């Protein structure tokens, strides 16, 4: 009603309520390399499309005449209560869409009380981003130099990041035609390397200081985290050196989720990286229910890839996610309006979730289970 009431006095909203419209406006503002880096996906885009189609195959079955005037989106994750079942997914190199990048995103997240998952590929250091005093999670791109890994974990801990998200699906970069055609990889321009380039242990590995030879530093970082996979037995290094919850991101098979539980992890993010890694991989939403059935009683199951609306969040919660991570939509908000734009997108999706919940006859996310949906 805030928007409609403003409209009565001639004040119209600065941003569209359609995510697709925000994307169109962002496309007009951004240079094509930056736009396609964010919008693009792997290969033919089959998995990116599959992510969306999977949402369309489920329909909500609304129920009437229930006491649902007051809803409550509060969500407990890893022993802490958040105001909504939503976090901002780790998205690297945010300064390619807005100069304030992750600083703007972290202020928006802090204002709303939702967790921001800061990417290792951030354009600002984790200490700078920590100045916004909201819930902070840190996403690790796991280096193949244990001392660098431990240094990143220590910096994250000291700066108040309490939950570690370890991304498994991007140990090497996939075939991304949009970026290949433009020869556009922000990391190779240094955008997105603020965390390693400011790391004392990484810096001690360099033959010459970063300031004197930034290109050599970049070329030394890339193979340190990209090109070789880790294996299950190596997770103990992280478990032994991180006291808080650890969440594995990029899980798509129930057996991998079971192994995560066996390895002492606290959660998984069912994700295919927004269709940016294995083109032809199954839709993330189709991977969700089997994972939730396998480990829902042992792990906190989170979800991302393809969420574009409050109704999508509702469906993911019904299929077993405790909360969702939002990816590209908040980047379109950031591109259009910095901190304010991110806040707009998150508030809009949460407002729609709240309305969908109530209009479908439910009061809280915990009321949802697969029986509230039907296959279209
Ligand atoms: C990502 N994602 C990502 N994930 C991660 O763990 N670390 C990262 O640095 C990045 N960087 C990144 C950049 C860009 C431009 C995009 C679009 C995505 C993946 C992200 O966390 C999430 O899994 C997807 O964005 C979810 O899909 P949707 O919501 O974008 O469809």
TrEMBL record:
Keywords: Flavoprotein, FMN, Oxidoreductase. Belongs to the FMN-dependent alpha-hydroxy acid dehydrogenase family. One of its GO terms (molecular function) is FMN binding. PANTHER family: FMN-DEPENDENT ALPHA-HYDROXY ACID DEHYDROGENASE PB1A11.03 (PTHR10578:SF143), S -2-HYDROXY-ACID OXIDASE-RELATED (PTHR10578). Glyoxylate binds at residues 37, 141, 176, 273, 276. It comes from the Bacteria. The active site is at residue 273. The keyword Flavoprotein applies. This is L-lactate 2-monooxygenase. It comes from Planobispora takensis. InterPro entries: Aldolase_TIM, Alpha-hydoxy_acid_DH_FMN, FMN-dep_DH, FMN_HAD, FMN_hydac_DH_AS, LMO_FMN. FMN binds at residues 90-92, 119, 139, 167, 249, 271, 304-308, 327-328. Residues 11-376 form the FMN hydroxy acid dehydrogenase domain. Pfam families: FMN_dh. Its cofactor is FMN.
């Amino acid at each position: 009603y805030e928007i409609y009431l403003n409209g009565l006095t001639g004040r119209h909203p600065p941003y569209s309520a359609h995510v697709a419209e925000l994307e169109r406006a962002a496309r007009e503002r951004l240079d094509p390399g930056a736009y396609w880096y964010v919008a693009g996906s792997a290969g033919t885009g089959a998995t990116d499309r599959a992510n969306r189609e999977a949402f369309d195959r489920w329909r909500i079955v609304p129920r009437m005449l229930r006491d649902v005037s007051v809803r409550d989106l509060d969500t407990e994750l890893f022993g802490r209560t958040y105001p909504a079942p939503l976090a901002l997914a780790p998205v690297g190199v945010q300064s390619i869409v807005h100069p304030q990048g992750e600083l703007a995103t972290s202020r928006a997240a802090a204002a709303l009380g939702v967790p921001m998952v800061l990417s290792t590929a951030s354009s600002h250091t984790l200490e700078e981003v920590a100045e916004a005093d909201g819930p902070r999670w840190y996403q690790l791109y796991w280096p193949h130099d244990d001392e660098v890994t431990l240094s990143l974990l220590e910096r994250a801990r000291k700066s108040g990041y309490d939950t570690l998200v370890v991304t498994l699906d991007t140990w090497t970069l996939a075939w991304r035609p949009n970026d290949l055609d433009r020869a556009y990889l922000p990391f190779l321009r240094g955008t997105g390397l603020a965390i390693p380039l400011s790391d004392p242990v990484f810096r001690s590995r360099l033959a010459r200081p970063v300031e004197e030879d930034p290109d050599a530093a970049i070329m030394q970082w890339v193979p340190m985290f990209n090109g070789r996979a880790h294996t299950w037995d190596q997770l103990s290094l992280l478990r032994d050196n991180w006291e808080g919850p650890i969440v594995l991101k990029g899980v798509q098979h129930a057996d991998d989720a079971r192994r995560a539980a066996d390895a002492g992890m606290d959660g998984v993010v069912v994700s295919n990286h927004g269709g940016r890694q294995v083109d032809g991989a199954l839709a993330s939403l189709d991977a969700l229910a089997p994972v939730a059935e396998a480990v829902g009683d042992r792990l906190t199951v989170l979800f991302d890839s393809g969420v574009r609306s409050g109704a999508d969040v509702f469906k993911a919660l019904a299929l077993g996610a405790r909360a969702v991570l939002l990816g590209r939509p908040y980047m379109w908000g950031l591109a259009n309006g910095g901190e304010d734009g991110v806040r707009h997108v998150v508030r809009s999706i949460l407002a729609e979730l709240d309305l969908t919940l109530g209009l479908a006859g439910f009061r809280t996310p915990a009321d949802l289970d697969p029986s509230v949906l039907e296959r279209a």
